[in-house]
Amino acid sequence: MDVKTEILSKYKAKVFKSRKEHIVEVDNGSEQLIAANTRAIPGIMTNRGCCYAGCKGVVLGPLKDTVVLTHGPIGCGFYSWGTRRNKARPNESGENFVQYCFSTDMQEPDIVFGGDKKLRQALSEAYQIFKPKRIMICSTCPVGLIGDDIHAVAAWAEAEFGIICAAFSCEGYKGVSQSAGHHIANNGLMKRIIGTDDRRPEGKYPVNLLGEYNIGGDGWETERILKKIGYSVVSIFTGDGALADIARSHTADLNLVQCHRSINYIAGMMKDAFGVNWLKVNFIGVEATCETLRHLAEFFGDEELKKRTEEVIAAELEEIAPDMAHYRERLSGRTAAIFVGGSRSHHYQALLRDLGVETVLAGYEFAHRDDYEGREVIPTIKEDADSKNIENLVMEKDRRYRMFLTPERFEDLKKKMPLEDYVGLMKDMPDGAYVVDDLNHYETEEFIKHLKPDIFFSGIKDKYVIQKGGVLSRQLHSYDYSGPYSGFRGAVLFARDVSMGLFAPAWKMVTPPWAEKREPNAGKAAFKEAESLKEAGDA
Amino acid sequence: MLDQTPKEISERKALRINPCKTCQPVGALYAALGVRRCMPHSHGSQGCVSYHRTFLTRHFKEPAVASSSSFTEGASVFGGGANLRSSVKNIFDVYDPDVIAVHTTCLSETIGDDLNSYIMELEIPDDKLVVHCNTPSYVGSHVNGFANMVAGFIRYLADPRAPKNDKIGVFPGFVNPGDIREYKRILDLFELARVILPDQTGIMDGPMTGVYEMFPEGGTTIDEIRSLGGARQALALGAAASTEPALALKSKCKVESSVLPLPIGVEATDNFLMTLSGLSGRPVPKELEEERGRLIDLMLDANPYFYARKCAIFGDPDTVLGITSLCLELGMIPLYVITGTPGESFTESAKELLSRYGALEGAKVKAAADLFELHQWIKNGRVDLLIGTSYGKQIAKAEDIPFVRAGFPILDRYGHSYHPLVGYRGGLLLAERIADAVMDEMDRKCLDEDLEVVM
After folding, report:
1. What whole-number distance in Å separates Cα of residue A295 and Cα of residue A171?
2. Quick one: pLDDT at residue A443?
3. Which CATH fold topology does B24-139 show?
């Protein structure tokens, strides 16, 4: 029995029928379909979150110049408070709301008699205390059910206080995962913020960084490199981001899309409305970063920029070469499994390849088929009841629409780089590897038994499931309090963290000396060789 | 850090900022993890349980298993009965627990899902069980959710016809496995047979063995819960977390409970031990008396570092009352004592404690408070020490105040859940942490010529 069949054999009829479509053994010779963005199965322990988590938690939460007010009972606001590691520094006026949690903390009478009144009162209080220029309201499940009109309240607040106030109906039950919330947040930013300030920032090569949430400071490392080469970063969606910057993001010449899943809607809509091209980038991995930087230079087509790019790449590579060589030697030949949100399971394979680590299993928590198979499948994706409920904005050409590239040059560049395209994860994976959508608790345990990866990159919910089983697990949602992992310097930090995890002396002490010697589940690679700590410290 | 927090305090009626509580379901989930081979199940969207598992895992650094009814928009309109039916079937098929403990969410509560009738209509395998409790997120806090789930187990399982036995029931409160281990050690010293419900030891403090087990040996067994119906008495530790289960046991099985504060600090532990002494008919064991002596010894030795120091204490009601009690015994002045959980019995108890030590004047005590307000109080009247959960670290940094972590949750440090706050051992640990924090701060800030090696 092959691995897939064996794992599926535990499932009864309905679950079997659903899950078999979500597990694929990669065979690059044939066209492969995978089911994705479908309902989680009740009772099956998925790692997925909800629409609110995608809208407030992922996209809006990192914005520092806005009060993000959760309208609902206390839990949702509380859980999304400071838990995603999206770092932010105060802006020039000293504003930084990222450290705060704002909630209407709805009580039973609010549910029974409606929560509009409390929301108004909360907005008044927020305005009185903080005098913010912007407030974003995010609703949780009961708000949609009792029918609070948060959009009307937001309009009232705008008139009353002369601020920007937008509401997001991102109730947790909408859609099938966080993904719906990304879309709702994208729509709201597009409708209300983007294009509201036409002042084009000074500086050459203006770009926006999309889908970079500055987890562990990733965005800062990316920004450091971009600025060193000479790009001006107009805005970041949304890590250490500001709505004041996003308001003029349409003045940039190019959108760099890091996390495709969470932000591709805005990339597409800004293209349609303002003509801004977008490029799929990847700043995770040394090779990947170099490739992305070369694509960027090629896009602008400026010889001076290309030269500068090569100089910066050479200098950066020189800086990290000894460390990368050291870690590559320690990690090379090992295997990894990666299960993260909607793009990182792809991005990190590049970084692992830099280190000689092969990925044997990868999957996304809340991706769509295009994230696996490439954007060319988008026209063939069938809408279902859940996806239909999420508004799909169609943008008209704005009066400020402008094209940076001639149509000919666009076509020419498209052949050289993922310009307005994303190839997806599957084509970059070797034959025989497994791709699993919405990997669940049971399947995680089973795949570990079968594939015996040395490292399993995942999130906090399954981290200790995996480690208790003797396999190193590092969190790729939150980087276990470390990071940045992006760009050149981040690659070294990542390699250091993985290496220290694998070579922890305690792995060897799991079995007491008096007990029967038993191989810890799949983590035996960690026990293979004992390199000295001195060597680890020298790096 | 927290630069937007103004010193001027304005009254808020609707806006909660930097809460000191979370919602009921996470407490229910934690309670259900303390029952053997139990799958906690959240009847709502999968986002709820995803947050709760994340939260508990971050506190305990342990897997927190739980499933969800994974509502979509359709279920929210038509009711979650079908989702619960498939959930229960799939959970028994794939994970094979002995019992599923369902709790509700604000989603299923708002649409009015009737869990009683859903569960009655379920097809449940013969040797399996499904229990439930209601945990509307818009009422109370995680502490109430915990209490409701424990009460739920009793309502479903405690057997009024269970043979009378000489066991005592123990409702441990919303505490860490480290506390429950300490209870067990103390109860053993009194040779008291007992049923502790819930009991997360072995589950939320599992050893590293290289083998993962979804349902490890640990937790209160179903038979033990049934036998509570015949227990001679129960101890409900911590009024906020344990009164509900005590009432449930009385109403279903006529078993009386004594409600005691969490045994944190000298006096509360003394009372706890004297109660156990009465129940067991044995004098307080010498071993415990000596432990008490060591705690008092440290309290007197380190007195200069405790005495008259002002502190702010925040967290869950029962824990905060316990810590406040210990701080007063140490000679400290708890200037601000807050919990996010609503309920005036907290403020009454806290005020009663403070007034006994002449510390009520000038002190602020509040339930249903938040950390934004606490921070503002501190800006207007400084304290020497802050004691509470991880979320206090922002205030501690902003105001440059030494900080001692205690309570739930502690997301940013390791090992806390292994150690007790209860009993004399817990007191010793907490007193030591407080003295260390105060003295480390002195050493770090003093002039070179003032740095002393001796005490």
Report:
1. 39
2. 98
3. Rossmann fold (3.40.50)
What's the pLDDT at B53? 98
Of B113, B107, B92, residue with least CA distance to B48: B107
Tell me what pLDDT residue A527 has. Answer: 47
User: Which chain B residue has the Cα nearest residue A468?
Assistant: B212
Residue B85 identity (one-letter amino acid): R
* Residue B154 in tokens: 């009793």
Phi and psi torsions of B170, nearest 5°: -130, 120
Look at strands A23-25 and A434-436 and give their pairing: antiparallel
Handedness of CA A420, A425, A431, A435 (dihedral sign): negative
Residue in chain A lying closest to B71 (CA): A173
According to CATH, what is the number of the domain B302-446?
3.40.50.1980
CA distance A197 to B273: 69
Q: What is the full DSSP assignment across A407-432? A: HHHHHHHHHHS-BT----SGGGS-TT
| Residues B454, B432: Cα–Cα separation, whole Å | 17
Domains of chain A, earliest start first? 1-32+321-374+423-539 (3.40.50.1980), 51-192 (3.40.50.1980), 206-320+375-416 (3.40.50.1980)
Neighbours of B255 (CB within 10 A): 24
| H or E element, residue A218 | helix A218-229
| pLDDT bucket at A516, cuts 50 / 70 / 90 | confident
Residue A151 annotated among the catalytic residues of the structure: no
User: What confidence tier does A537 reach under pLDDT thresholds 50, 70, 90?
Assistant: low
Output the CA–CA distances (angstroms, integers) from residue B63 to B45, B147, B442, in the order listed: 20, 22, 39
**Helix B266-280 × helix B317-329 angle, to 10°:** 110
Catalytic residue among A36, A50, A170, A367: A50
Is the CATH number of domain B168-286 3.40.50.1980? yes
Tokens of B344: 């005036």
User: Nearest residue on chain B to A471, judged by CA atoms?
Assistant: B210
Map tokens 């078999």 to a residue.
A20
Contact call for B55 and A511, based on CB within 8 A: no
Answer whether B17 sits within 8 Å of A102, measured CB to CB.
yes
What secondary structure letter does DSSP report for A51? H
Residue whose C-alpha is closest to residue B337's, from B306, B361, B311: B311
Note the pLDDT tens digit of each residue in B420-452: 999 999 999 999 999 999 999 999 999 999 999
Per-residue pLDDT tens digits for A235-267: 999 999 999 999 999 999 999 999 999 999 999
A51 classed as catalytic: no
pLDDT at B293 over 50: yes
- What is the distance between the alpha carbons of residues A500 and B334, in angstroms, rounded to a whole number? 43
Sheet of strand B99-104, all strands in order from the earlier edge strand to the far edge: B67-68, B38-43, B99-104, B129-133
Q: How many CB atoms lie within 10 A of CB A56?
A: 27
Paired strand residues for A236: A209
- ipTM summary value: 0.97
The CA-based angle A146-A147-A153, given to 5 degrees, is 125
Residues 6+ apart with CB under 8 A from B430: B264, B323, B326, B404, B406, B421
Which two tokens mark B416? 């806390």
β A455-458/A335-340 pair status: parallel
Do B168-286 and B302-446 come out as alike in CATH topology? Answer: yes
Contacts with B, A 89-118, CB within 8 Å: 90, 94-97, 99-108, 110-111, 118
User: Chain A closest CA to B5's CA: distance in Å?
Assistant: 8
How would you classify residue A456: left for phi > 0, otherwise alpha for psi between -120 and 50, otherwise beta?
beta
- What is the spatial distance between Cα B106 and Cα A141, in angstroms, rounded to a whole number? 7
| Encoded amino acid at A499, one letter | S
Q: Which residue, among A8, A67, A97, A105, would best test binding to B if mutated, counting the most B CBs under 10 Å from its CB?
A: A105
